[in-house]
Input
Amino acid sequence: MGKKTARLWLVPALAVTLGLALAACGGGKTPIVDPNIAPTNFKQEILDTLRRTLDDPTNVHDAFISDPALTQVGNEPRYTACVRYNPRGLNRTYAGNTERVAYFYGGHLNQLVEPSKGECAKAVYKPFPELEKICFATKCN
Output
């Protein structure tokens, strides 16, 4: 195949490739998510996060949680819930009460972080025995 023939073949091939690439970009629409869907599985999502992040998630005392409430976070309303617990550290001593705020987006846990001053001050806590009963075995007492 000569150089002229190769160039003539290359131009249509590039046009087809470019067309397919552009079609792929325009065809898929990103679904719009309502950020303020009420979380339904919030306790389990918080438990899963704490199970991965606590030094010793099997020995938590004095666990409490608030129900998710639509609150103002910056300029936007978002569902939040507050969690308070006394975790045991790697040195096998209890750290004292620890508080976290859970931020939800689209009905799911987005962040579990230390609250800013007063952010959980109005939280209405109720017992969270599921956190106190976390274990790694398939069958726990």
